[in-house]
Amino acid sequence: MSMTRREFLKRSAVAAAAASFSTLIARANQQEKVKVGVIGTGAQGQNLLRQLMSMPSAEVVAVCDIYAPNRIRAVELTQFRAQGYSDYRALLERKDIEAVVIASPLHLHAPMTLDALQAGKHVFCEKAIAYSIDESRQMAQAAQRTGKLLQIGHQRHYNDTYNQAYWLIKEGAIGKITHVRVLWHRNNSWRRPVPDPKFERLLNWRLYKDYSHGLLTELASHQLDVVNWFLGALPISVMGYGGIDYWKDGREVYDNVELIFNYPGGVRVMYSSITTNAYDGYGEWFFGDKGTMALTNETSGLLYRERNAEKLEWEDDANTVQVDGRRAVVIEPTPTRRAPQRGEQLAQQGQRNAYYAELEHFLQCVRTGEQPKCTAADALPALTCILGAKTAIETGALYEFKPEDFRLG
Ligand SMILES: NC(=O)c1ccc[n+]([C@@H]2O[C@H](COP(=O)([O-])OP(=O)(O)OC[C@H]3O[C@@H](n4cnc5c(N)ncnc54)[C@H](O)[C@@H]3O)[C@@H](O)[C@H]2O)c1
User: Fold this and answer.
1) 146-187 per-position pLDDT tens digit
2) pLDDT tens profile 288-339
3) Residues lining ligand 1, CB < 6 A?
4) For the purposes of burial, counting CB atoms within 10 Å of the CB of 264, is it exposed (0-12), middle (13-18) or buried (19 or more)?
5) Would the N or C end of the chain have less CB density within 10 A of its end CB?
6) Candidates 38, 39, 44: which one to mutate for ligand 1, based on the most atoms within 8 Å of Cβ?
7) Which domains does the chain show, CATH number per domain?
8) Do residues 47 and 349 lie in contact, with contact meaning Cβ atoms separated by under 8 Å?
9) Closest CA to 150 of 165, 172, 135
């Protein structure tokens, strides 16, 4: 580990400078805002819409949702500047719209993306990329054929803490990684109240297998994407359990999954997602022979050095906290000297909102023609991991991945 304090702070400062540089670019482009349509304005669509509304480089001119309350709410969020549509194809017919943001249920990612690309729009589509590998490939091919951009919404790629953690791991801060623990634990049914039974599948699509792969696509996709990215590797095989063991409410997707992925070099990744206990929250823990990188709740990054590992050169200059009697270096996107209280979110210290950052990047790519950071090729491996894990659970047998399934073609 040969990073000096100066380099450590410089790297942090670069991240901060990049943030303000992109703001400058956005300002420079203010005269030529990208006209955007948002398709699927439920929970995440509204979140993304709020980001777009606060962005100098975007002008949301249309929103679409088949569920009237969500469509009306979206129009309200644009201060009635956007036109509301119930058919996304009508939105796509508008010539003035350059780009669309798709935040629909998983099974609609592919058909909507294909139609949007065919209509000449650049596409930002939420994660997971699609319901199947074949659909993902069709999406990528359509982007290539039409010459339009396709970015997938794995926002951790735009998260300053994750980027700083990735770089430190690459520099050897935790040594050789041998194990990764990943979990997403909640204590709720995931079920939404529906005003009328006829809306059950529309509002609770996550619980039905025709529309979603459940916890695997909705939660694990984010985290397996991070594991593949940080390890710079893809799994060889996976085994696992899953079941509908607690929430016997008519759902068709597992309410708990436990997986073990086997990566090259004997690296094992343990994954767990449950819906009956929220004690551990969610996060990824990378265990190396010199230390542990703990990333939790998308906001907190802590590095714990192993007792027998040499002190990091820059450690005395970094902010540290005591957690359960152990000293941890705070992974910060900005070179603040203030150590946060335990539990305080790094976001409060000026970390950029990753949803804002990913959309700002998307619009910048629309303007410059550069390829986005998280393309279909980047997003496919997480889906492949998920589908392999699902097969392992269903068959009760070890699933061996086919290397070609991680590639678009
Ligand atoms: N990146 C993240 O952190 C994050 C967080 C939450 C959700 N998501 C993703 O965002 C997507 C949406 O999730 P959500 O939680 O917002 O779901 P949601 O159910 O709240 O919203 C989906 C919306 O799509 C609408 N819709 C369904 N079919 C439609 C159609 N044919 N035409 C137009 N609109 C249609 C629904 O009426 C609903 O309003 C999913 O892919 C999910 O995985 C990502």
Assistant:
1) 999 999 999 999 998 898 899 999 999 999 999 999 999 999
2) 999 999 999 888 899 999 999 999 888 887 888 999 999 999 887 654 333 3
3) 39-45, 64-67, 70, 88, 103-106, 108, 126-127, 153, 155, 202, 218
4) exposed
5) C
6) 44
7) 5-156+357-375 (3.40.50.720), 157-349+383-395 (3.30.360.10)
8) no
9) 135
